Amino acid sequence: MTMTSLMNPPTQGIGVVGVYVDDQDAALAFYVEQLGFRVHTDVRNGSYRWLTVQDPEQPSFQLGLFTPGAPLHDDATAQTLRAMVAKGAMPPLVWHVADCRATCAQLRERGVEFTQEPVDRYGNVDAGFRDPAGNGWKVIQRAAGAAR
Questions:
Q1: Nearest residue to 31 via CA among 5, 62, 76
Q2: Under a CB-based contact definition with an 8 Å cutoff, are residues 98 and 36 in contact?
Q3: How far is C-alpha 131 from the geometric centre of its chain's CA atoms?
Q4: What pTM, to 2 d.p., does this model score?
């Protein structure tokens, strides 16, 4: 298998990437009502909940909103993960948009609070916000002609 075939197979690919949240209902409300995502999957198995959302513009990709804890983590690990997310210590999520300033204005109207207002950097425009759990987001408008 070549790197190209690994990255562009017709029936394979990364479908879900998860973030840790402390309250799935609060996260769901934020991602749907404020960011405009839609629910893809919301199922339970006992106390475990598999919850994913999608950006309507990217239907082949799901963002999982998962709580640290059983059955995947013991109590100590779950507590550590929650603390790391709350501190903003997890890697940021990056959302590419056509117009950063317009997107930020729309999100602000929906109640999103920004940690960094849009700023021009190296031909790009970027801004930042955090979700209710503390996960950091970058909203980036790439420079004209920038590689995808």
A1: 62
A2: no
A3: 8
A4: 0.84
